[in-house]
Structures are given as C-alpha cells and as structure tokens.
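Marked as duplicate of an earlier ticket. Keeping the data here for the record.
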Amino acid sequence: MQYFGDILDNQVLLVALLACLIAQLLKLLFELVIHRKVNIRVLVTTGGMPSAHSALVTALATGVGQAIGWSSPDFAIAAIFAVIVMYDAAGVRQAAGKQARILNQILDELFQEHPKFNEDRLKELLGHTPVQVIVGSALGVVIALFANAAY
C-alpha cells in the first residue's frame, strides 16, 4: 500500500497528468467555441486541439529536467520519449486517419445499395495536425513551469 502513496507523492507524474487533463478540458472549450455545442465525447477521443499526448509528454520531460537536471540521462530519456510520441501523433496517426477517411469514402461509394456492408466505419480522427501538437507541447511546458514555481 505504501507504493500507492509514493505514486501520489510523485509531483512530476501528477503535473504531467494534470497537463493532460487540462488539454482534454481545453478540447471541450474549443469544441464549444468552434461548433457552438457541448460535445462531451471529445474528452475521451483522440485528435483535436490541443494535443493532450503532447501536453502530457512535454510536461513530463520538463518536470524531469527541473527535478533531476537538464543534463541527466533521465531527462534525455523523457525528451526522446516526448519527441517520439509527438512525431507519432502528428505523423503516423495523422496518416492513418487520412487513410481511414479514404477507405470510408470507398466503402460509401461501393456499397451505396447495401447499407449492411457500410455499417462499420473506420475511425478517421486519429492524429493531430502539427499546430495541435505544437500547442499541446507548449501547454505542457507552461504547466510544468508554473507547477514547479508552486511547489
């Protein structure tokens, strides 16, 4: 049971999770401003502005740098991890979303008369645009810097 208490005492982890949560809540706000409706589904889906993945990993890397040192191997691992996650969010998953959109369009056109074959659509919003990743990463850094000043 002590392990759970130790996890809750890990301020770097808690700040990273807070950055992710704030990014997800901002998605709800963006959805409200842009589409003028509340869409609770954006809280649990991927994609959208800002990237919660980017906010999470940059807050984590920033927290590690602040806590252990910017020249530490731990910061290097966290920074490389952040770069990989952000590359995946804006690159690989964005490309997969584009492919899903095209495949769904093909299915729509091929099976117009047979709606039974057209029921299961592929998820199209998988990744982020580069702007969404940049905003998410900036948000993560800012939250980590403010949190560090608070504790």
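See parent ticket for discussion. The mean pLDDT is 85.
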